[in-house]
Design a protein that fits this description.
Rossmann fold, alpha/beta, 8 helices, single chain, binds NADP nicotinamide-adenine-dinucleotide phosphate, globular, two-stranded antiparallel ribbon, 7-stranded parallel beta sheet
Length: about 280
Amino acid sequence: MRPPIDSGTVLITGACSRIGRELARQLARRARTLVLVAHQKEPLEELRDELLASNPTLGVAVEKCDLSHPDEVDALLDSLHRHLIQVDVLVNNAEQGEFGLYEQQRWPHIHQMLRANVSAPMLLTHRLLRRMVERGRGGILNIGSGGGRLYIPGMAVYAGTRHFLEGFTESLRLELVGTGVVVTRVEPGPVAVDAHAPPSWMSISAVRCAREALEGFERASPLVYPGLAYRWMMRLVSLMPRPLMRATGMMAAKKLRQGTALLEERGQRVLLAGGPEALSR
Ligand SMILES: NC(=O)c1ccc[n+]([C@@H]2O[C@H](COP(=O)([O-])OP(=O)(O)OC[C@H]3O[C@@H](n4cnc5c(N)ncnc54)[C@H](OP(=O)(O)O)[C@@H]3O)[C@@H](O)[C@H]2O)c1
């Protein structure tokens, strides 16, 4: 069973970011229509123009939507309905992250991350899935993170929301066996900021990440770890006993708290928006 990408309609959240943008570029060669969703309209419109220039028969809808607001998600779905756009494949790729000790993070921002990383993919899936099941064809591609396998001090919210995606996607996949709907989760590791950057031993380009994600999705794989070295590392991590994972995390947590105390002494705050990749900026 393959997800209905060819001549289908694919909705991608976070479409103007690294991985989302590359997914859009690769899907544009095959899909009939792409629905590109993100916070900001301008980068989406630029991407639309680029995609149309190389794929003149493609249909592209640009939808500006703050996924952390359920009302805006509803408005997005209403807009699709009004324009008679029926989504065959949903790619939940958007994500918000912040680095810092949990007690120092602001609740409104934590809540926003929860809504963007947990509620939005659940709501979109809920609203679009029933029609897929009725039609006997569809696909859900959830882009999570290797962070969904780890315990990460300083990224409790991010890691928590990525762990959520594992339980949700795997359980949903089981529910949908035999319905014609393919469900795949991708857990990327480090992805280079520049889409065409030469790969390091672990980090891969967004182009490769998107390509391997789509290849896994087409094989109906339950889980894809893009990149060879990273894939093997994650396989080893999966075998790691939890006490060992906790002990490793403990060391990182100690350093984080010491570092935070040091920065506080200097009057600086350790809060970094942008998820784990922000650490390398
Ligand atoms: N890059 C990596 O190294 C890496 C590693 C592991 C996992 N991942 C996963 O891969 C996925 C994509 O990551 P990325 O690094 O390519 O993306 P990114 O550069 O972090 O950009 C995130 C994307 O999500 C959109 N977004 C975030 N919050 C949103 C909201 N509330 N409403 C609407 N759109 C929102 C952003 O739109 P705007 O730009 O318009 O705000 C942007 O397009 C994420 O799920 C991430 O967890 C990435």
